[in-house]
Amino acid sequence: MSLDAETRWTRLAGFWSDFRQSPVAVAALIVIVSVVLMAVLAPLVTPQDPYNQQTLDLFDARLEPGETGSGGYVHWLGTDAAGRDVYSAILYGLRTSLIVGVSAGFCALLLGTTVGLVAAYYGGRVEAVIMRIIDLQLSLPAILLALVLVAMLGQGMPQLIGALTAAQYAYFARTTHGAASAERRKDYIEAALSTPLPARQVLFRHLLPNALPPLIVVATVQVANSIALEATLSFLGLGLPLTQPSLGSLISNGFQFLLSGRYWISIYPGIALMLTVVAINLVGDQVRYVLNPRRSR
Amino acid sequence: MSAAILDISRVSKRFVKRPSLGERIAGAFGAGRKTEIVRAVTDVSLDVRKGEVIGLVGESGCGKSTLGRIVAGIYTPSDGQVTFGSAPVAKEQGRRTQKLTTRVQMVHQDPFASLNPRMRIGDTVGEGPVAHKIVKAREADGYVADMLGRVGLDPSYRRRFPHQFSGGQRQRIAIARALAMKPDLLVLDEPVASLDVSIQAQVLNLFMDLRRDLDLTAIFISHDLGVVRHVSDRVAIMYLGRIVELAPTPELYAAPNHPYTRALFESVPRVGVGRKDFRPIAGEIPSPLHPPSGCHFHPRCPFAGPRCKREVPALAPIGPGRSSACHLNTGGTA
User: Fold this and answer.
1) CATH code for the domain of A59
2) Position A10 in a domain
3) Quick one: which of B263, B268, B309 has its CA closest to B283?
């Protein structure tokens, strides 16, 4: 038992010592952790609840970054047309973006993994039909599919998560299918089938755990993609209603002022979005590198 | 003699590789591949009696592993059937094979591939018996410990992962997994071929002990004539998908009948016999994609005549409990 715990701990330590070889990835990880912390703790670290209309004052509208408003505190990133503190709005917007991104990524992971496993396990016609559908879907841009689905399902967080899941599960399905088809041919699966174990047990206790490593990488990248997709939809006015804004709607909120010199309303949420997405992608890249068994050590 | 518990009756296995869509389109223009059929096993019949060990010997590619997998219910035969007791071992379900019995278990050749690398060995050994209610889930731990002890492993190892074991230990785990299902018949597919010679002896001795203690019935697949002589009661020699000779072990080793069996014995290098001129069998084993006509061995056989090219020799009795498939026994090769 103790020896076993030790092995697991050693493996994790090995993973970490490989991971921190890249200072960029470590910096990106720090960015992600701080972004998540700030989003979670938003009510404690912001001067204003930007979506409580009573705390907003129209006299504070469109203040420049650094000006002090009627609340008596400094608006470090300025205010928007409704007198909302941009800094506070970004942190509250991050909450929405992260919730949508992570839940959509997670749902897509569950759906896509199941579909991919079933295709790899059953083979034959089942595999052919599932994988051709996946191919077909991957030949369309994800954003197009998400747009059509959101337009059909209407606004709201569950609908949005549903649309993003449907637009993205195909990436997980294809990755799982590839990894699982390779594992499917190995002797331990044959041994499990000739015991015989029930299909469910072979799928989830033998095939899935061994097909998992590449999925972790896809999962990180797809969370970043979900966040960016959601921002795009919200920017186009199709995502979430303005009463529940995300980073995308904040960017679109200041878009009309961009050319009149009030750059901060759009630019700062944009920077926050970019930082988050790039950081997640950098961490994903490093995880991919560390988990690749063929890399030269 | 006890009764047969496993009946292999006129079993054939063909693997069909159909051209893919792209190759079919290419085929329409005169290029691309045609449908290829590999005849891995052709018309094999064999009875396995309770308590005996049958050695299945042949060169690589002769279909011995395929036959083992058919017996173990991993493949279904294309023709003929394998019955255990009175029921078939497996049935075809769509394109997949559904195994119907737990009483035939298999031990694979490569213990580095046959154990799930992400599962503790205790779970690997215990999940089958729990799934089939051989033990209750809460008694599984003790049962697994008992099984590991039986194959000579420390029961406290059961929470470890396969990568923490050597090849010989892993093969013991694989044997424990098979034994845990309380099988009546064990199929061992070259269980020692991938192990070091010193470890081979350990695993073979373990097998002999288990055989004595549990009264095992087994099909022991190997290309090593020495190993097979050590463990088996009867030996079946396979060549290119067919059994060419079947005999009790002492008789076969004393007086091999089939020219292929004789050639196989002569090709084995031996230490200390004083003979340095072991002769390899002439030529290569032919491709099972395009097997030779008549007797499959005729292109390599020193005694081949025109009849061998025309006519497939039947596996015919040549003595008590012995049979051989050669025209030399039935009126000559002319």
Assistant:
1) 1.10.3720.10
2) no
3) B263
Residue count of chain A: 297
On whether any CB of chain B is under 8 Å from the CB of A128, the answer is no
Are B41 and B11 spatial neighbours (Cβ–Cβ below 8 Å)?
yes
pTM of the model: 0.81
pLDDT tens digits, residue range B191-221? 988 888 888 999 999 999 999 888 899 999 9
In a domain, A6, yes or no: no
Closest Cα partner for A206 from B128, B262, B140, B259? B128
Query: Containing domain of residue A87, as a range?
Result: 21-291
Residue B280 is predicted with a pLDDT of: 72
- Whether the per-residue pLDDT at A2 is higher than 50: the answer is no
Is the pLDDT score of B124 beyond 80? yes
Is A11 a domain residue?
Answer: no
Distance from the first to the final alpha carbon of chain A: 30
| Average pLDDT, integer, range B221-228 | 91
- ipTM score: 0.86
B160:A3 CB<8 A: yes
- Condensed to tens digits (0 to 9), the pLDDT of residues A213-237 reads 788 888 888 899 999 998 888 888 8
* Residues B76 and B40: beta-carbon distance below 8 Å: no
Q: Quick check: B137 contacting A, CB < 8 Å?
A: no
* A210/B73 CB distance under 8 A: no
Please check the confidence at residue B275 and state whether its pLDDT lies above 60: no
Taking the alpha carbons at both ends of chain B, their separation in whole angstroms is 38
Do the chains contact at A191 and B106, CB–CB below 8 Å?
yes
Task: Please tell me whether residue B121 adopts helix, strand or coil conformation.
Answer: helix
* Cβ count near B291 (within 10 Å): 15
Q: Is A6 on the interface with B (CB under 8 A)?
A: no
What is the 8-class DSSP label of residue B43?
A: E
**Residue A59 domain flag:** yes
Separation CA B255–CA B322 (nearest Å): 11
Cα B255 from Cα B237, distance rounded (Å): 14
Total count of domains within chain A: 1
Q: Which residues pair with B317 in a beta bridge?
A: B323
Say if A198 is an interface residue toward chain B (CB within 8 Å): yes
Summarize the confidence of residues B223-244 as an average pLDDT.
92
Tell me the three state secondary structure of residue B286: coil
Average pLDDT rounded to a whole number, residues A98-108: 92
Is pLDDT larger for residue A279 or for residue B333?
A: A279
Reduced 3-state DSSP string for B164-226: HCCHHHHHHHHHHHHHHCCCCEEEEECCCCCCCHHHHHHHHHHHHHHHHHHCCEEEEEECCHH
Q: At what angle do helices B167-180 and B197-214 cross, to 10 degrees?
A: 20
**Number of A:B CB contacts under 8 A?**
77
